[in-house]
Amino acid sequence: MLELCSLSVEYGGVPAVKQVSLSVPKGCCAAFIGPNGCGKSTLLKAAAHLIKPAEGTVLLDGEDSSRWNNRRIARTLAYLPQQFSAPGDYTVRKLVEFGRTPFLSFGQRLQKRDLGIIDWAIHEMNLDGFQERQVASLSGGERQRVWIAMRLAQQPRLLLLDEPTTYLDIAAQYETLRLVRKLNRETGLTVLTVLHDLNQAARFSDIIFAMREGRMEGTGTPEEMITAPMVRSVFGIDGVVTSDPVTGMPMFVPEK
Fold first, then answer.
1. Most-buried pick from 108, 124, 163, 226 (CB within 10 A)?
2. Which of 191, 187, 188 is nearest to 176 (CA)?
3. Contact status, residue 162 vs residue 106, Cβ threshold 8 Å
């Protein structure tokens, strides 16, 4: 679904991402891990065509997407940044409706098919009872589900999420990730997300990409990536890896 080929990104001539290559297969749920400032969010923005790489290529469905127009990109992928804000008087439904914008001509009204897709996105994010609530009145976890619902209304085949659990309490974090994983499994939606919690990355991902200082440190399954040597190499912290008693996936426990 997504391939980054020798991608490099610079800010003011200073390298932020250096010759990164990776592949996210269709229907996969993948996650970036790595310390702050290592280039995870920058790489996600480059994949979303929000930053022009200094060199390298972004392939979507095997095509060089630098030749695509914005409408075609928006019909293929959806990107959710770390922080988002909306006018305080917007209702949940009104905000989710904006996800249909790439499919409408100028001045065109929402059609029956659009309304059905909006209903579906709201339902998938467990927001049926919130449709007429103002977004500003919602909790952090509820607002995050609204933003994801808006992106789902685009009907993307690739969903890019930059730290979707930031500022959420633990219950909201797991609810958000469970809903995204459910969509991935039931609809085949390809997902690439940036996560800070290693154990969440292990539980909700098929593939993990580890980054350090702008470069790819390793790629593999959770079992291959959540190991004491890899965590030490990427984060500089020692610990032990045990088995998650709920899922059986690897679980990292830092030393004192």
1. 226
2. 191
3. no
